[in-house]
Amino acid sequence: MNWVEENTDTISALREYVQGFEKIRPSVFDYFEGGSNPLIPLPVESERGAGTLFFFASLYQNITEPVLMRILSELWKEFGTDIFKLNRLPFARLNSKILSLPGTEKWAFAQQAAGVLRSGCDFFYAHGGLLAWVEKEKDAENCVEIMCRDVFLMGKTSVLKWKPRYFMWLLTQLKNISPDFFWNDRALVPITQGHTRIMREFGPLRKGRVPWTTPAEKQDYFNRFYRMLFPGESFRVYLPFDRYLKPGDLNPSDLQFQCLDAVKHCRNCRLVELCPGKVGV
Ligand code: SF4
User: Fold this and answer.
1) Residue 228 in contact with ligand 1 by CB distance below 6 A
2) Is 277 in the pocket of ligand 1 (CB under 6 A)?
3) Which end of the chain is more exposed for a tag (fewer CB within 10 A), N or C?
């Protein structure tokens, strides 16, 4: 018997754990119209909302989500919809505007941000609206390759290409676009520390043997497991697995793990029996 055949109960528990997060949307969506902290004046489902998500994913490096979204909201206040034409603005003016914004002082990537935004605007000019572009390309990994090729510091030399894969995953969470159009068995879910924690506690890594030698092989291995859990819909695991035993970093005073957002109490959680982080049971 292989690992999957020997662990049908654990696999059912993981599927139920993931299903418990079905109504929970990515926290970055909270910053758009209709969210709990609407800093961006439009729905995330709009073409411009997707464009703003693209800026977010391309700049999400060495910075927290709330600080980066505040920076993007300041740029929205300054430029309005011309934020998508920043490639026409002289580099020095855009760069000094970005560096004047709160939150950029300690941001190691701040000096690259103007180049990334201008390159993103060139990308919009070349490919048009992102939602229409993705539906036309019909393949998440093709989109990842094109973004890496065409957008400054999007991941061309990165093995894991985390930024474009995270962006493609964000698109699977929009209500107005069906992932069926672009998500297939080639698509790779980006992996995080929470994913590794899940694989160690509940997945085949419980046996202790690490069956990969490179980060890319690790990502492929995880994704094979995700496809076994949810054939054709591997994107469903990203958020629930990312939040597994993840400290509540969106609110520093919140000491609870983010996986509790779905079940409210560990006694309601399908993983409680084997979970080393359970509280109050
Ligand atoms: S900490 Fe609680 S809610 Fe989170 S996975 Fe463990 S048992 Fe479930």
Assistant:
1) no
2) yes
3) N
Judge contact between 84 and 48, C-beta under 8 A.
yes
User: Does ligand 1 come within 6 angstroms of the Cβ of 133?
Assistant: no
What is each CA distance from 236 to 17, 188, 220, 222, 254, in whole angstroms? 11, 12, 16, 13, 25
Count of H-run helices and E-run strands, the chain:
13, 0
Atom 1, ligand 1: residue with shortest CA distance = 278
Cβ of 18 below 6 Å from ligand 1: no
Choose which residue among 244, 255, 265 to substitute to test ligand 1 binding: the one with the highest number of ligand atoms within 8 A of its C-beta: 244
Residue 257 Cβ inside 6 Å of ligand 1? The answer reads yes
Q: How many CB atoms lie within 10 A of CB 26?
A: 18
Tell me the CA–centroid distance for residue 256 and ligand 1, in Å: 10
**Alpha-carbon distances, residue 118 vs 87, 111, 112, 274 (angstroms):** 4, 13, 10, 48
Q: List the pLDDT tens digit at each of the 281 positions of the chain.
A: 688 889 999 999 999 999 999 999 999 999 999 999 999 999 999 999 999 999 999 999 999 999 999 999 999 999 999 999 999 999 999 999 999 999 999 999 999 999 999 999 999 999 999 999 999 999 999 999 999 999 999 999 999 999 999 999 999 999 988 999 999 999 999 999 999 999 999 998 887 788 899 999 999 999 999 999 999 999 999 999 999 999 876 555 556 899 998 999 999 999 999 999 998 88
Residue 206: both structure tokens together? 């419980």
Q: Where are the beta strands (DSSP E) in 39-113?
A: none
Alpha-carbon torsion (55, 60, 65, 71), positive or negative? negative
The rounded Cα 7 to chain-centroid distance in angstroms is 29
